[in-house]
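The record is kept unedited without comment:

——
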Amino acid sequence: MDITISMLETGMRYEGFLLVRSADQREGKTGGKYLDMNLTDRTGEVNCKMWDGTVAPPPTGTVIKVRGLVQEYNGRKQLRIERMRPAVDTDGVDLSLLVPCAPETPDSYRAEIERTIDAFASEDLKKIVREMLRLAGDNIEWFPAAQRLHHAERTGLLHHTCSMLRTAEHIIQAYPFLKGDLLRAGVILHDLSKISEMKSDELGNVTDYTRDGLLIGHLVRGVARLAEAARNVNVTGEIVVLLEHMIISHHGIPEYGSPKPPMFPEAEVLNWIDTLDARMNEMEGIMARVPAGAFSEKIWSLDRRLYHPIYEDGAE
């Protein structure tokens, strides 16, 4: 059986093919150079070091064969690479085993979103949301939702959106006073401008943030794009302002990037289900890597370690 990243244990020797997410040549405290890389397969990502300053960093998005020893550094597993080489055609590498992907197809997610829009009672809401999707373009088919954290996978943006839509349906039933279509529209629109915020290849591998992402960000760009979409389809009035507010407030507080807090119920719910879905996706990945009864390394985005419970029914 092939060893995957999720199966790595300290002290284990590893040899196999991995996808390059990032690779840089760095200089140590003593002046020696080394390679610092993050490599992935479908099950996760591992930081790797190669203490050989003569080796050039492999290009991002390529596949390499590595051999090395699994170590631990600052509570996290790390692969100390002894040898590596680029993959060649005769290796017969199955790329689908190396690329983290959403659990469903882009077509199934898009169909779910289209069914949601079709059911909107407001024609203006339909027009705006469809125009925003048109402006987003075809990259949405494979675009990830993040560079490192939640839904950092091929088609991750659609995965995140549809997971949130499914959660929203339960909340709408629990709180019937909510304007369901407004919340659904906010879910579909809230992260669309991540497509202009990050540099990603079609494998969902993000190499960096764009100039637009660093200078503007997806919240502010999303509001500007919404205003453009509304003009394109000749929609004005309260609905435009409400959707703009939902986009700019969906991170909740200034520390997380929102200049305004959510100021009406649907905006508040959008913030909570965005946070919930992001954390559950991240925790799901961590639980898949950590054996039952063990603790994870400290997760910097959550500022804590996580425990994988030993459930009474024996389920892991």
About this structure: The longest strand covers residues 13-27. The chain has a mean pLDDT of 90. The radius of gyration is 22 Å. Residues 194 and 288 are 27 Å apart (CA to CA).
